[in-house]
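Might you be able to check the backbone structure tokens below? Thank you kindly.
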Amino acid sequence: MATGVLGPERARITERTLRRDKWWWGPLTTGAVLLFFIVYATARIFMNKYYWAGEEHYLTPIYSPCISSACVPGSSHFGTPLPAMPPFIPIAVITFVILAGFRGTCYYYRKAGYRSLFFAPAACAVPEPHKKYTGESRFPLILLNLHRYFFYGALVFGLINVYDAVLALNGKDGGIGIGLGTLIIWINLAMLWAYTLSCHACRHIVGGRLRSFSKHPWRYRYWTFVSKLNTRHGQYAMISLVTVIGTDAYIMAVSAGWITDFRFYN
């Protein structure tokens, strides 16, 4: 049965929609960013090189932590408990599974994906191509309910990213050093934490089940803080995608020797 403006209860009109504004611009730009990130991230994790700039102490977040014995010297900050993988299994497989799972099951990305990639619906008063709505109660979409568990993993990786950012403050000749890559890494770290802490799952975990905020003043403060971040969760989600790509691309270029890191100090 047709849905939306083509439904049986609506007037018989030939136009797909009567909207005259550029309703397609939002889904188009969001979909383009999501598709670019998917292609870029997939290509990078299977590249298995150019992820560690040893002299500058830069490790890309896509490969952090690097815990395989196949990792280049100096990039394994937490040991190498995993053996060398076959060529068809990327070194960053654990990082990819956790972080891709966190973003893929995120409430905002689900909304963005449905509207921009599956047109369900692309915009208000614009009919979607699907004949019926089944929700997320069946396999495989029911697996999206694992989001809160991926959130716990994202917290661990966020702390690892903090360690990487501190390590990026090491100078080439010892002591403290700051380069352009250092600033890029710290900006990306701030955006990643803003995205993670503004997560709906984080808001629920902090104070979602409390029956009385007055009995839990500290959790109420955390809940209030997360709630303020949550209003911009979608913005942080898209900005952090751009900063992750930018950070990885810069570190890849430095690691490959395509560019030289600009140093502000040491």
About this structure: The longest helix spans residues 233-256. Helices lie at 25-45, 93-104, 107-116, 147-167, 180-197, 200-207, 217-230, 233-256. Residues 12 and 251 are 57 Å apart (CA to CA). The chain has a mean pLDDT of 90.
